[in-house]
Specification:
260 residues, alpha/beta, Nucleotidyltransferase, domain 5, five-stranded mixed β-sheet, flat, metal-binding, RNA-DNA hybrid ribonuclease activity, nuclease
Length: 260
């Protein structure tokens, strides 16, 4: 059994069918436990492959129409009380496997960082756009979001020929596009952009925590947690905090800033 377990660790799921065939009729509990483990792993692998295939449906349609550089575009940071809106655009080379891409909203910090590394190593191109709080002060968060999205597309070192954008139609770009509602669950390219934008913004807020340690930005990343609101009451806003539009409500008001 130990030798088989070593083979499983060394060769991975490709050897699981052979192990199942070899041990299927073995009455020993240890053998049957190994068979169950192999079957469970294979079922999970098949489930993920099916999900991954589904998440490339938009891209496959566009590739079949001759669009090769299809960019998924997404943003984070519309909802916080402080910090920038960050957008990312990602062009993938084809139906590559990116572990965890089908559950981007449920990933731990460690797994998100690992996936971010995979995306950076695999993508044809990655672009990032950031709009700082002063840019958000001058206009609505929606306009700031458009600015960040356009910056991300413009930052791509390879010109995209089609855009898949999470949930919005983006004005001011020349490429054809389609908004995909809930895109980070339906398109691998959009999901990859969501991961890049999230990691870039989180890392930026951690850097800002060293500059403004009293607010706890490393913990809440600028969102309106109880800890953050208490710090605002105690110290007042810093340059990272967003100011309301003229005639709007005060910083930290839940009606002005919503999670998203």
């Amino acid at each position: 059994m130990k030798r088989l377990q070593a083979l499983m660790a060394e060769q991975g799921p490709d050897i699981y069918p052979d192990i199942i065939a070899a041990l299927a009729d073995d009455p020993r509990e240890g053998a049957q436990k190994l068979v169950r483990q192999c079957r469970t792993h294979l079922e999970e692998r098949d489930r993920r492959r099916t999900q991954l295939h589904r998440m490339y449906s938009y891209e496959r349609q566009l590739w079949s129409m001759g669009y090769r550089n299809v960019a998924g575009v997404d943003e984070v940071g519309r909802g916080p009380l402080a910090g920038p809106v960050v957008a990312a655009a990602v062009i993938l080379p084809g139906e590559v496997e990116l572990p965890g891409i089908d559950e981007v909203k449920r990933l731990s910090h460690r797994r998100r960082q690992e996936l971010y590394g995979h995306i950076r190593a695999t993508a044809v191109a990655v672009g990032v756009g950031m709009v700082q709080p002063e840019g958000i002060d001058e206009a609505s968060v929606v306009v700031a979001t458009y600015k960040a999205l356009r910056k991300a597309v413009a930052d791509l070192p390879v010109t995209p020929d089609y855009l898949l954008i999470d949930g919005v139609h983006l004005p001011g770009v020349t490429q054809p596009q389609v908004p995909v509602v809930g895109g980070d669950a339906l398109s691998c390219s959009i999901a990859a952009a969501a991961v890049v934008a999230k990691v870039v913004r989180d890392e930026y807020m951690i850097e800002m925590d060293a500059k403004y340690p009293e607010y706890g930005f490393a913990h809440h990343k600028g969102y309106g947690t109880a800890e953050h609101r208490l710090a605002l009451e105690r110290y007042g806003p810093c340059p990272l905090h967003r100011k309301p539009a003229e005639g709007g409500t005060s910083v930290g008001a839940p009606l002005l800033f919503t999670e998203g």
